Amino acid sequence: MIELDGAYLEGGGALVRVALALSTITEQPFKVTNIRAGRPNPGLKAQHLTSIKALQALCNAKTSDVKLGITEFWYHPGKIKKGKFDIDIGTAGSITLLLQALILPSLFAPGKVTFTIKGGTCGKWQASVDYLQNILLPYLRRFVDSIEIKILKRGYYPKGGGEIVLEIKPRFHFKEFDNFNLFFEELQFKTPPIQLIEQGKLEQIRGVINASLELQDKDVAERIKHMMESMLRTYEVPINIRNEYTHARSIGGEAIVWALFSTEGKMDYDNPIILGGDALIEQGKSSEQIGKEAVNELKKHIDSETAVDEHLADQLIQFMGLRIGSKIKVEKITNHTKTNMYVAEKFLPVGFKVQGKIISVEGKD
User: Fold this and answer.
1) Are 91 and 234 part of one and the same domain?
2) What is the pLDDT of residue 29?
3) What is the three-class DSSP state of 110?
4) Cβ 194 vs Cβ 320: under 8 Å
5) Do residues 193 and 324 lie in contact, with contact meaning Cβ atoms separated by under 8 Å?
6) pLDDT per residue over 176-198, tens digit each?
7) 205 and 190 in one domain?
8) How many CA atoms lie within 13 A of 109 on its CB side?
9) What are the helix (H) ranges across 37-151?
10) 225 and 168 in one domain?
11) Residue 254 pairs with which residues in a beta bridge?
C-alpha cells in the first residue's frame, strides 16, 4: 500500500484528490496521514467525503471509516465502470475540486461516463467550471473521443445550487489491458505528450461574465465588460466577451477572460496555448475593480512569456504523468504543483524534473 504524508509542502486537500484519482486509474491502494495538516481546520472536509462516495460508485472502492475531520484513511480502488452518476455536493461545495478526483479515471472507463453534479460553480481558492470548460479540458482531448461540460445552473456562495453535466466518451479502455503498466505503454504510442513551452502569437481574447439576476438593474456585467474591453484593446486582437445573467440562490458571479495563441499562424489542437484570468463578483468590490482584477491577472500571464500559468500547472500534473516526454514552461512553480508531482511520482512509473521554469516528465529506470 502506498503511504502518503498529507502534510507534505502545501498540506492541503489537493493531495487527497489527486491521490484518489491516481489510485483509481492505477488500481494501487494508498493510505494518507496528516490530512490537511497545514490548514486551520485539519482533516477531511465535506467535498473530500463526496469525492470518496462518488468513487465508490464509479469503481466500487473500499475505504476505512471516513467522516468529517479525520486526519487519516486508506483507500482501495476497484474496477472503473461506465454509466451515469448523480452527485449532490450540497450548498456551494466546489464542483471543480470534486472533479479533480473523478476526471482522470473516467477518461479510461469501459464506456461513456456522465456526471450530473450539483454544487458551487465558482468560489474562492478554486478554478471555476468556466475555467475547466475553456482552459483545462482542451488539453485532455488527446485521451478521449470527446469530453464536454454543460453548465445548467449557476451556484454561488453560500447557498450553491449550481448544476453541471460532464460527459466523457473514452478512446482507450483500461479494462482491455492486463495491468496498468501495459496500459501505460499503450498511451506512450497512441497519445501525444503535453508540450507547452513557447507562448507564440496572441490571436484572440475571449471571456464570459456570469452574474445573478439581482445585479442586472445596476448593469454590473455590462460595466465589468466595458472595463475589460477598454483595458484589452491595447493588444489589437479580436475580443469576444459575453454577459450572462442567471437565476441563482445567492447573489454573486464571476468574470473570466482567456487568451488564445498560435504558432506559425495555427492553433495546435493537441497543445493549445491558453492563458486565463478571473475575478469573483463580490460585495464591496465595484464592477470596475472586478474587470481590472481579471484583466490584470491575464496581462501578468501574457507578460511572463510563459505558456502555462501557476493555476493550470498544478491541474495538469496528474495528466502529464501519463505521458513521458511531456514538458511545460510555467510562470511560477507553486507548492501546489510540487505537491501534485510528489503524489504522481508515488503512483506512476515516471519522475518529474524541474529546471528553472520548465517541468518535464521522464520515465523511471
Assistant:
1) no
2) 98
3) coil
4) yes
5) yes
6) 999 999 999 999 999 999 999 99
7) no
8) 27
9) 46-59, 95-106, 129-131, 137-140
10) no
11) 210, 280
Cell of 91: 450548498
> What are the angstrom distances between the C-alpha of 289 and each of 9, 280, 281?
33, 10, 10
Q: What's the structural domain count of the chain? A: 2
Number of H helices, E strands in the chain: 10, 16
The values of phi and psi at residue 81, to 5°, are: -115, 160
Amino acid present at 138: P
- What is the tens place of the pLDDT at every residue in 103-153? 999 999 999 999 999 999 999 989 999 999 999 999 999 999 999 999 999
* Domain enclosing residue 8, as ranges: 2-195+332-338
Read off the amino acid at residue 170: P
Same domain, 16 and 125: yes
Q: 326 lies in a domain?
A: no
pTM of the prediction? 0.95
Alpha carbons 13 and 69: distance in angstroms, whole number: 12
State how far the alpha carbon of 163 is from the alpha carbons of 94, 119, 151, 207, 245, in Å: 11, 6, 6, 20, 16
Active site residue 336: yes
CATH assignment of the domain containing 137: 3.65.10.20
Residues 135 and 221 in one domain: no
The closest alpha carbon to 360, from 257, 228, 269, 344, belongs to 344
Cell of 4: 502518503
Among the listed residues 48, 301, 311, 336, the single catalytic one is: 336
Question: Are 131 and 150 in a shared domain?
Answer: yes
| Half-sphere exposure for 205 (CA within 13 Å, toward CB) | 23
| Co-location of 93 and 231 in the same domain | no
* Strands of 2-5's sheet in order across: 2-5, 30-33, 73-76, 62-63
What is the phi-psi region of residue 325: left when phi exceeds 0, alpha when psi lies from -120 to 50, beta otherwise?
Answer: left
